[in-house]
Every structure is written in C-alpha cells, then in structure tokens.
C-alpha cells in the first residue's frame, strides 16, 4: 500500500514538473518583405558587373538568380536584392544581406 502511494505521488510530481518545466513554445518569426524576381535579376547583374564571387554558380550549379529567388521565396529570409542592385563594391553589397 505504501509502495503504491509513493508511486502515485512520484507520478503526480513528475506530471506537475512536465507541465511547469517544459520550455514555452517559440512563435514563428514574422514574414519579411521579400524581393521580386526582377530584384533578383538586377542584384545578380550588379554582382556580375562588380565581379563579386556571389555572382558565380553554386557548387551544385545553382545560378545567382536561382539562389536569390529561393531565398526570397522562403518568406523568412531575404538577401535584400534591391540593396544589392544599388551597391557600388562587393564589400558594399555584402552589407546588404539581412535575415530574421
């Protein structure tokens, strides 16, 4: 009888801790304002004009425009292609990238 009570007490304590000790759920980050396909094309053209390494295809063969469109399509990260298209040096466009 004592054994069952101790087991029940232990289970109740464990249940109370599980309800109180688990971390709160983290909300999803808010969507970011993504660039358009035209923004990606302009940004990649600027990177090409400046001879920046980001203009080169990925090791898997993805083009700059493909990478940009994929990033912009997530809704949670942006490469800020509009900013990149305005850059005057590779270092300047590197400062454009923003993510949430």
Q: What this model shows, in words?
A:
With about 100 residues, the protein is mainly α. The radius of gyration is 25 Å and the shape is elongated. The chain has a two-stranded antiparallel sheet with strand order 1-2. The mean pLDDT is about 80. Helix content is about 55%, strand content about 5%.
Rg over C-alpha atoms, rounded to the nearest angstrom = 25 Å
Coarse shape = elongated
How much of the sequence lies in strands comes to under 5%
Average pLDDT, all residues: 80
- Helix content, binned percent: 40-55%
Give the H and E element order.
HHHEHHE
| Overall strand count | 2
Low-confidence stretches: none
Strand order of the largest sheet: 1-2
List keywords for this structure.
elongated, 2 strands, mainly alpha, 54% helix, 100 residues, two-stranded antiparallel sheet
Question: How would you sum up this structure in a few lines?
Answer:
The chain is mainly alpha-helical. Helices cover 54% and strands 4% of the residues.
Layout of secondary structure:
Elements: H1 2-21, H2 37-49, H3 64-73, E1 77-78, H4 81-86, H5 90-94, E2 98-99
Antiparallel strand pairs: 1-2
Helix pairs in contact: 2-3
